[in-house]
């Protein structure tokens, strides 16, 4: 079976919906106090590459800590769950995803499903992973995991994976609770959820993790201005300062 037969990419949200959702979220964010911009729109090809670069910096302990946990425990999780499909929110081609795939293959699973807002990120990761793992079937879904998660097709017992402390991107506790309920709604008895989040830390330790001596995080977050200009026709200046708080 050639690579193209082991990859499928399906769109769950049409482009007009994406723009409408972006315009709605930007409007709400600019009217709110404090103002905010939903980070989910930052993870296109360029944004994903910037975040991957930032996350590999030695002071960002979250990536290395989570990777170490998976390196030692991914096989135990797969043995306990015995999934028939692994569903990851966000298209993965990083070390963490590879650790999951290798562990799931050892327990007989070969279907990896990813849901991402960026079609290019989906296709790139699918091509990289299927080229590296000849046994792997990748089903990519283009959509917003906050709204499109229930639309994913099911092929059997599911391990749902949401790593990287991404749950922290939800601004409020009620939003986090609501999303946890959404994830629960797509799971049935026998399924499992693998959720990555940070533990309570000293404020200084957290601030040190987000120190940005090379300016990579600033590039990543300031892309919000470029996205509003390019997608919504805004005319915002691209200068400005960035502070992690």
UniProtKB/TrEMBL annotation:
Keywords: Methyltransferase, Transferase. Residues 23-236 form the Histidine-specific methyltransferase SAM-dependent domain. It comes from the Eukaryota. The keyword DNA-binding does not apply. Pfam families: Methyltransf_33 (PF10017). GO terms for biological process: methylation. Coiled coil: none annotated. InterPro entries: EgtD_Methyltrsf_superfamily (IPR051128), MeTrfase_dom (IPR019257), SAM-dependent_MTases_sf (IPR029063). One of its GO terms (molecular function) is methyltransferase activity. The keyword DNA repair does not apply. This is Histidine N-alpha-methyltransferase. The lineage of its organism: Eukaryota, Metazoa, Porifera, Demospongiae, Heteroscleromorpha.
